[in-house]
Structure of SDR family NAD(P)-dependent oxidoreductase:
Amino acid sequence: MNYYIITGASRGLGKALAEALLEDEQNCVVGVSRNSTITHARYRHQPLDFSDIAGVEHNLHKVFAPFEDAQNLVLVNNAGVIGEIGYMGQSKNEHFEFVFDVNVIVPAMFMNLFLQSYQHRQNCGKMIVNISSGAGQKAKDGWAAYCASKAALDMLSQTAQLEQDQLNTGIKVFSVAPGIIDTDMQEQIREADVDQFSSVQQFRDYKAQGALASPEEAAQKILRLINEPQIARGVVCSVRDF
Ligand SMILES: NC(=O)c1ccc[n+]([C@@H]2O[C@H](COP(=O)([O-])OP(=O)(O)OC[C@H]3O[C@@H](n4cnc5c(N)ncnc54)[C@H](OP(=O)(O)O)[C@@H]3O)[C@@H](O)[C@H]2O)c1
């Protein structure tokens, strides 16, 4: 069996990825998010709110079962939030904590526990795919916490890969920008005030012009990375390159 732990599997990219994986009867998916929206014999849901760090610390171990018959174990850190769009100096302090908890702190805890649990497992492929964003490489006004959180995720991934290479575990780690996808997150971006995000019209135009990828199309690209990791140009990569 192949086991995929996917955070944010309740909607958007994470759900499309989980559903695509479940089409293969060799795959089982553990989805982690606040809501459960998938019913399938090979799907297990672990409810967790990533903005509740104490709750995550208490329940995280439930995700990482022994999976004794695993041939492949894959963690996809996909859950993410953009938070309230707005300039620094006009944001609430809690906003930074919220975005970093969901986008960085909890994904780092997932990576840590995944490695702790499965690092030394023999005869089993192991991979961590963190869903990042081009915003981690290029600043956008109004998105400070989001941009910084994705930059942090990129560096966590690079460091983890360096360490796994030193340890010779064969574990692959990626931080992949999935492109612009037609999900709730994009809807929230299009609703921003132009004073809080100067490029908002560009994002409205993307939608109007049909330039957004569907979650299913984006999921296929992530699947391709999982199945053919050699297509990535490096740890930090973009679906635009495959
Ligand atoms: N959409 C884009 O254009 C785009 C572009 C670049 C990068 N990305 C990245 O792609 C990933 C997926 O984005 P998406 O567009 O699919 O987003 P989405 O449609 O808004 O879905 C977000 C997912 O994250 C989960 N989530 C949100 N808050 C959570 C919390 N407090 N605790 C646990 N889970 C939580 C949600 O589940 P619940 O609500 O059930 O908890 C949901 O399943 C994100 O990391 C995002 O940054 C997206």
About this structure: Residues 35 and 90 are 31 Å apart (CA to CA). The two ends are 27 Å apart (CA to CA). The chain has seven helices and seven strands.
